[in-house]
Specification:
The complex is a heterodimer of chains A (about 210) and B (about 700). Chain A has about 210 residues and is an alpha/beta fold. Chain A is built from eight helices and six strands. Chain A has two domains: about 15-80, no CATH class; about 95-180, Glutaredoxin. Chain A has helices spanning about 20-30, 40-50, 60-65, 70-80, 100-105, 110-120, 160-170, 200; strands at about 95-100, 125, 130-135, 150, 155, 180. The longest helix of chain A is centred in the first third of the chain and has 12 residues, at about 20-30. Chain A is globular. The model of chain A is unreliable at about 1-5 (pLDDT under 50). Chain B starts with a strand and ends in a 16-residue tail after the last helix. In chain B, the strands form eight sheets. Chain B has a seven-stranded mixed sheet with strand order 14-13-26-25-24-15-16, with helices on both faces. Chain B has a five-stranded mixed sheet with strand order 2-1-5-3-4, sandwiched between helices. The mean pLDDT of chain B is about 95. Chain B has about 700 residues and is α/β, with parallel strands linked by helices. In chain B, α11 runs parallel beside α14 (about 455-465). In chain B, about 25% of the residues lie in helices and about 15% in strands. The chains are: A alpha/beta (about 210), B alpha/beta (about 700). The interface of A and B includes residues 1, 5, 73 and 74 of A.
């Protein structure tokens, strides 16, 4: 996330929702009272970001402002506030490495390092082929399976450098690596096997 | 009526007040940065923390509504500690550059740091630096000093009506700005400088000029529009260094327009500081004696019928009164103070005043704007309309050119036919006005300064009468003047006497040689090419259009250099005060007329200002009633007649240059470049205030 306008980025001159996205946008706007259209700004910005290939050009923000009858600056405020909106182009796969305490204790620094080395880019940079971009973010709420990264909309958990590289390789090959824990555990179940007798005794979860 | 206890004092306050306001009613002062009476509550600076019984932690008093039974303490150790904590946080990223900061000496943060600041910082990391923003030619930014109170953001959005300023980013990276680099397009932007509690937004023209404590402060009146904003003129020696607003709830609240605030540098340029005489076709310096002698020489033997006088837009009542008396003594009936040729009917006072009063605008629920763009002609009246609009339920219809007035308007038509339709009830907006409880109309000079102006005036009167605008308790007929001198001139009778010529008649007469001598009392906005071969005496303070055409120039005083009476568009009588002396040999205007009268052998019967004013009061006792608005009786005015179909025009094309002072101002020229001609500037990008 960068607020400063001095990071000059080639901006497209215009933006408009595709017919599909326009229909989605109307649905989102419909969730709110007619005189509170501005409430739809987050949803519409997200749509716009997806349509623009993972980042929000200024034209898209202006378009959303016009659609919602807001002053453009009010949309800029929202878009710059949330770290989920990218104001500069990102790679096809946007890697967000969680670096908050639990992940950090479990080795998130190593994940960042290995990404940098493997992809040959620094933080906030995009690979030359436009495939990957890398940033560090604060807690993504999957601490139980730390360390983890988010790539586009998916979480990859229980990582170490080797497992993360495997995921990246798979993505680069155009495959769809399985999401969630990369060690094969189910959800956030105990990492080293069952700790209760529930299964043996026929008890139910939550007992 | 909630009853609460503040520091052991029981107090009953109006419902809807906040705890902070309740504290103020009993004189308990609460420190604050983000809270401002005239803006919405933000509650983000946390400086106003107080202790409330039963609350687990201190509360922000600016955002907490006063409720019955509250027990508030503002002077406990906890409150002190909380405020000190807030101050310490605010100072973490605030630079210690007070010695080079223009806000120094009048800085809220500096003052409050004296009370709540710690004598050293405990933060040993680097302070953050924020890039300078470009806000246009009037506002200098040093955003590293910003404490994010968002007063400027709220002012621009709420009062200014230009939603261009915002807070982008978050946390440590929060910045105030426009995001897209551009100058703030508001006629009221200078007020943000006053609102800024720190030195983040300061005046660009005043940068590094003076310290607030070196300045002589003179309370005066602005004359660059007809609102009569109350101002304070800050000067040092013989120079006006800045102009600030003064509180007047009925007129300008606590704002002034950018022209009132920044045109002062025009007072130093192109000034007439000595008399001039045209010899061999060229203006050459002369002494007062020579100038007067030349006038006496030329006027001798000329019958009064062939002499005329036109008063300009910045003239004070005293000078116009003295010149009127002199013209009377010379036997001339040809006087006019309507130098734009507006067909105002001087006979009926209600017909040329802003009868609703400026504060009264807040009661209106429907408004018809006729040939006027209040945003350019009187930004503060426009701000009132916007304030009323934001309260909801105000319908505004416009007849004339379309423009963004910062509130929603409905364009009804372009010219007099639409006005006639409303008068006859044939237009749907007539119904809107009739249904309204307090309808008003504002008639601008764009509708009157035209050949059929008198008929338009009569039409507007018919609209007012037909739509129930004129009642015992309400007068919704308003004329919006563009000249500070206009109402004063009308009240003092600086209009054609019986058989006298008006502006057009004088100019025609001069062109044909029927008028031999024309006395221009600060009149620069007339078509001087129509003066023909007339002998032109120009009395004024700037070398503007009038002086260029003059045969004799008598150097007068600008509004900051004299004690003069002005009547604003409401009919409110106010006085300017002398802040600095006129330059060189220039003199206060009435004294010039008085001295000339002596040379002409028609000595006016006053030797000092009190004597003149006494005579003025005898002429019209209303001049005595300073700051009062005397309601005017309704009656017939205007002239029935045919109107032509031409559209109303905008009387002011360029808000920043309307008079000799603002035309001479470099600041106003820069504003014209950027806001009117649309050129973009921006020179200090990338700086942070921490640079050398």
């Amino acid at each position: 996330m960068s607020v400063s306008n001095s990071d000059v980025v080639a901006q497209p001159t215009s933006f408009a929702f595709s017919p599909d996205n326009l229909a989605r946008a109307q649905t989102i706007i419909g969730h709110y009272p007619a005189d509170r259209k501005a409430s739809a700004v987050l949803g519409l910005l997200d749509l716009a970001q997806r349509q623009s290939g993972g980042w929000l050009p200024r034209a898209a923000m202006d378009y959303v402002a016009e659609l919602l009858e807001m002053a453009p600056i009010r949309v800029y405020e929202v878009a710059t506030f949330y770290s989920m909106f990218n104001l500069k182009p990102v790679g096809k796969f946007h890697i967000q490495v969680c670096r908050t305490t639990p992940c950090w204790l479990r080795g998130s620094d190593d994940l960042t390092q290995s990404c940098k080395k493997k992809l040959g880019i620094g933080l906030h940079e995009v690979t030359a082929d436009g495939m990957f971009s890398l940033i560090e973010v604060e807690c993504l709420g999957a601490c139980v399976n730390a360390p983890m990264v988010q790539i586009n909309d998916d979480y990859y958990e229980d990582l170490d450098p080797a497992r993360l590289e495997a995921v990246l390789d798979a993505l680069a090959r155009g495959e769809k690596p399985s999401i969630g824990s990369q060690t094969g555990r189910q959800g956030s179940a105990p990492a080293n096997g069952q700790k209760t007798h529930a299964a043996e005794g026929g008890g139910q979860a939550g007992e | 009526m909630p009853k609460l206890t503040i520091d052991g004092i029981e107090v009953e306050v109006d419902p809807g007040l906040t705890v902070l306001q309740a504290c103020e009613t009993i004189g308990v002062e609460i420190p604050r940065f983000c809270y401002h009476e005239r803006l919405s509550v933000a509650g983000n600076c946390r400086m106003c923390l107080v202790e409330m019984e039963k609350a687990p932690k201190p509360i922000a008093s600016c955002a907490m509504p006063a409720a019955d039974g509250m027990v508030i303490r503002t002077n406990t150790p906890l409150v002190q500690k909380a405020r000190k904590g807030v101050m310490e946080f605010l100072l973490i990223n605030h630079p210690l550059d007070c010695p080079i900061c223009d806000q120094g000496g009048e800085c809220d943060l500096q003052d409050q740091a004296m009370a709540y600041g710690f004598d050293r910082g405990r933060f040993h990391e680097n302070k953050r630096a924020v890039q300078e923003k470009y806000f246009g030619p009037l506002i200098k930014t040093i955003m590293t000093r910003c404490i994010h109170c968002t007063r400027c953001v709220r002012f621009a959005t709420e009062v200014g009506g230009v939603e261009e300023l915002g807070a982008t980013g978050r946390g440590e990276h929060l910045e105030i700005g426009t995001y897209v680099e551009k100058a703030l397009n508001s006629e009221l932007s200078g007020n943000m400088i006053d609102l800024c509690p720190v030195g983040a937004l300061t005046s660009k023209p005043y940068a590094f000029v003076a310290r607030s404590w070196e300045l002589q402060k003179t309370e005066s009146i602005d004359v660059l529009d007809a609102v009569g904003s109350n101002i304070r003129v800050d000067s040092r020696g013989r120079e006006v260094l800045r102009v600030l607003p003064r509180l007047h709830e009925q007129v300008n609240e606590e704002w002034i327009s950018d022209k009132a605030r920044f045109a002062y540098d025009g007072l130093k340029r192109q000034r007439l500081d000595r008399p001039y005489l045209r010899r061999d076709g060229k203006l050459r310096p002369a002494s007062w004696t020579e100038a007067f002698a030349a006038i006496a020489e030329r006027i001798r033997g000329v019958s009064g019928d062939r002499i005329a006088a036109i008063a300009g837009d910045l003239m004070d009542v005293e000078a116009m009164f003295a010149l009127k008396e002199l013209m009377g003594a010379l036997g001339s009936p040809h006087l006019d103070c309507r130098q734009d040729g507006a067909k105002i009917d001087p006979a009926r006072r209600a017909g040329y005043l802003f009868n609703t009063t400026i504060a009264g605008v807040e009661q209106a629920d429907a408004c018809l704007l006729i040939g006027t763009n209040p945003r350019r002609e009187a930004p503060l009246i426009n701000a009132r309309l916007r304030k009323r609009y934001l309260q909801g339920g105000l319908k505004v219809g416009v007849i004339g050119p379309q423009s963004d007035l910062t509130y929603r308007t409905e364009t009804l038509g372009a010219g007099p036919e639409t006005l006639a339709e409303i008068a006859d009830g044939r237009h749907p907006f007539a119904e809107v006005l009739k249904q309204a409880k307090r309808p008003m109309l504002i008639l601008g000079m764009g509708a009157l300064a035209r050949p059929d102006g008198a008929a338009v005036l009569a039409l507007a009167r018919r609209v007012a009468e037909a739509c129930g605008m004129v009642r015992e308790d309400w007068n919704g007929f308003n004329m919006l003047h563009t000249a500070a001198a206009r109402v004063g001139g009308l009240e003092v009778g600086f209009v054609p006497e019986a058989g006298g010529r008006d502006l057009n008649g004088i100019l025609d007469g001069a062109g044909k040689g029927e008028i031999e001598v024309v006395y221009l009392l600060g009149a620069d906005e007339i078509d001087t090419s129509r003066l023909g071969n007339a002998f032109v005496i120009y009395q004024g303070h700037h070398g503007d259009a009038g002086a260029h055409r003059a045969d004799v120039i008598l150097p007068g005083a600008a509004y900051t250099e004299k004690s003069g009476t002005y009547v604003n568009t409401e009919g409110r009588v106010q006085q300017t005060r002398l802040a600095v002396f006129p330059p060189g040999e220039a003199r206060e205007d009435w004294t010039i007329v008085r001295a000339l009268s002596d040379v002409l052998g028609r000595k006016l019967p006053y030797d000092n200002l009190p004597q003149l004013r006494q005579r003025l009061f005898e002429f019209n006792e209303r001049f005595q009633r300073l700051d009062a608005v005397v309601p005017a009786n309704w009656g017939a005015f205007g002239a029935n007649g045919a109107v032509d179909g031409a559209a109303f025009r905008t009387p002011i094309e360029n808000f920043y240059m309307t008079d000799p002072i603002s035309r001479a101002s470099e600041t106003m020229a820069a504003c014209t470049q950027i806001y009117v001609l649309g050129e973009q500037g921006g020179d200090e990008q990338g700086m942070t205030g921490t640079n050398g």
